[in-house]
Amino acid sequence: MSPTVPENHVFLTRPLPERVMHEARASLPVTLTSHPTKDVPPNRQELIEGCRGASGLIVMLTDQIDDEVLDAAGPQLQVIANVAVGFDNIDVEAASRRGIVVTNTPGVLDEATADLAFTLLLTTVRRLVEADRFVRSGKPWNWGPQSFVGLDVSAGATLGIVGLGRTGMAVARRAHAFGMSIVATGSRATSSEAVEIGVAASDLEHLLEISDVVSLHCPLTPDNRHMIGQAQLAAMKQGSYLINTARGPLVDEEALADALDSGHLAGAGLDVHEHEPQINARLREMEQVVLLPHIGSAGSATRDAMGSLAVRNVTEVLSGRDALTPVDL
Ligand code: DGY
């Protein structure tokens, strides 16, 4: 460890919004990487070095926290706070074997993520990006009865929500307000709130068969990588759409590119990517695909709330109290 880094510091892998940095510095001995003002992830070496001697880590979904990092950090490490609700970047089992608490940020980004998911849905099915590119091309144009025609979501289209948790429910509320029929998989699909807005509980197979748009809202686990692969895409309705704002590896992107190429799927909206930050070269070339750089939670109040919750989780654990939002194994 460099002599300037205090023992038992809290290593923060990326500068957070100013309000959160203020809160963090006021309550914790925070250290940052060697490029503390840049919004770029530390490379592997910087991550390992930064963790050495830390009693707490505040990390992003781009930081892979595994045995190697935990060994380098040392036995004084007590808490790892992920500034995200998803925590597939952290080997929680390895942390818990060492008695380290892992926390995430549930409950503060559902609405922002649902706003983005529903915006991406409308943008994809109504072909907004394609239309915008066309206008910017400067080509001559006139209003046309068959120009840029897409799906009418409000004319009885069915939305299939895969994983009706907090964010999925927030998407369902938006879809209900737009007059869509909704089917969903997941623990809350039979809850009173879901029933009230007309959600029909379904298994994945039936959902894929009947949905005009399928939207993914489940966490990535060791068991559900490529849960949407060739067979599932083939089972989707002819001319339907796939929206993913959850995690990229849920979808086999080569199989998705095939399904789009053949015209079986009409389009896809992806905020997350299988090999983030790399973008699938075939999908990048397709007009009917909308690609975003993982911005589901990128509302300013939401990012403040995520950062603040992570800081408070670390403060609680280092003060000998329970974490506010611990991750369960
Ligand atoms: C999360 O919190 O898991 C999101 O993907 C971050 O935007």
Could you characterize the architecture of this molecule?
Keywords: NAD, Oxidoreductase. Residues 119-296 form the D-isomer specific 2-hydroxyacid dehydrogenase NAD-binding domain. Residues 39-327 form the D-isomer specific 2-hydroxyacid dehydrogenase catalytic domain. By secondary structure, this protein is of the alpha/beta class. It folds into 2 domains: 10-108 and 300-318, 3-Layer(aba) Sandwich (Rossmann fold), CATH 3.40.50; 110-291, Rossmann fold (3-Layer(aba) Sandwich). 36% of the residues lie in helices and 14% in strands. It has helices spanning 18-27, 44-51, 67-73, 92-97, 110-125, 128-136, 166-177, 192-196, 204-210, 230-235, 253-261, 281-284, 300-318, and strands at 10-12, 30-31, 56-59, 79-82, 101-103, 158-162, 181-185, 199-201, 213-216, 240-244, 265-270, 289-291. The strands form 2 sheets. The protein has a 7-stranded parallel β-sheet, sandwiched between helices. Strands 2-1-3-4-5 form a 5-stranded parallel β-sheet. The protein is globular and about 70 Å long. The model has no long low-confidence stretch (mean pLDDT 96). The protein binds (2R)-2,3-dihydroxypropanoic acid.
